[in-house]
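// run 5 | inverse folding | seed 20
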């Protein structure tokens, strides 16, 4: 069937009118996340280890907790770097800067994850298929737990981890969905995937998972592209690892050794699971047992997680 020039001219505005439908429910949940995180904002005690190390860096003493003691007391290299830059640029106290950074990073991560889920559901169908209503059930399940509201802030790398997972997922799906993507996009996605170990060392498992589809896309182009993608992913983590071994004389952050990261403690894991299922999920009147899914140009409806919130503020302490 042929389409008249008049109809073609009308099509783009119609598509633009449909676009808001795809962002209404995701945008609503992001607003809930930010509002709930702000109402429950706080700084946990471990956060002040990060804050002290940042202050030592800016004072010229290096990434240490105590002057002259080369011990890596923090877990996330990337979070310390972001806090240091944020403290230089922000007029606020570091505790408040951390709160704002975490809320922003968490929202970015959830938004990217929802975008990636919709694009994955509509894989190969083109941009037009992604303009219908999207029901972000996965994020709704996440926001249905108390800990997602509590640790939207806290001063640790939780929100940065959320941003990296969501961003990597969206970037990998976009790369797979664009077979003819430029080499620059492939390399940028590789760099992002490689940053996982700098967010948290145990994110190496997730980095490997994200690296598989990137490697497949790169290998289809050429062997040289595959080698370039691997180099892009490993360059910064290897540089940080060389610095760690030379500066601290260790293979891993001290937190891994202090917390016996290589040991198994099944009884404590069961306590964590019991606390999560028996406390966290019951602290909200809204519950869901749906499997996380996303809609692809299918009109439907979604519900927003609701609940009571308690107000707390970041504590402050000197280095």
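// decoded
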């Amino acid at each position: 069937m042929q389409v008249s020039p008049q109809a073609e001219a009308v099509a783009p505005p119609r598509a633009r009118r449909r676009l808001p439908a795809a962002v209404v429910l995701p945008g609503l949940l992001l607003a809930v996340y930010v509002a709930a995180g702000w109402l429950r904002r706080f700084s946990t005690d471990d956060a002040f280890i990060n804050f002290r190390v940042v202050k030592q860096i800016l004072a010229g003493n290096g990434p240490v907790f105590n002057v002259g003691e080369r011990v890596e007391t923090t877990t996330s290299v990337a979070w310390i770097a972001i806090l240091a830059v944020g403290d230089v640029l922000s007029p606020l106290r570091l505790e408040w800067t951390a709160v704002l950074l975490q809320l922003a990073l968490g929202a970015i991560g959830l938004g990217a994850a929802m975008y990636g889920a919709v694009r994955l559901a509509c894989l190969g169908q083109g941009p037009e298929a992604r303009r219908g209503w999207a029901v972000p059930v996965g994020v709704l399940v996440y926001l249905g737990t108390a800990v997602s509201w509590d640790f939207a802030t806290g001063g640790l790398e939780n929100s940065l981890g959320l941003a990296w997972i969501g961003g990597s997922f969206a970037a990998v799906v976009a790369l797979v969905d664009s077979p003819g993507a430029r080499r620059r996009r492939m390399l940028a996605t590789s760099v992002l995937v490689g940053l996982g170990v700098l967010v948290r060392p145990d994110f190496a498992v997730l980095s490997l998972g994200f690296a598989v589809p990137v490697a497949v896309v790169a290998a289809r182009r050429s062997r040289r592209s595959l080698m370039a993608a691997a180099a892009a992913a490993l360059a910064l983590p290897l540089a940080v690892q060389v610095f760690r071994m030379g500066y601290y004389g260790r293979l891993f952050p001290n937190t891994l050794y202090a917390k016996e990261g290589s040991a198994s403690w099944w009884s404590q894991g069961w306590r964590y699971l019991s606390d999560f299922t028996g406390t966290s999920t019951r602290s909200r009147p809204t519950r869901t047992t749906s499997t996380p899914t996303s809609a692809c140009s299918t009109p439907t409806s979604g519900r927003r997680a609701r609940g009571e919130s308690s107000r707390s503020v970041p504590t402050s302490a000197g280095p």
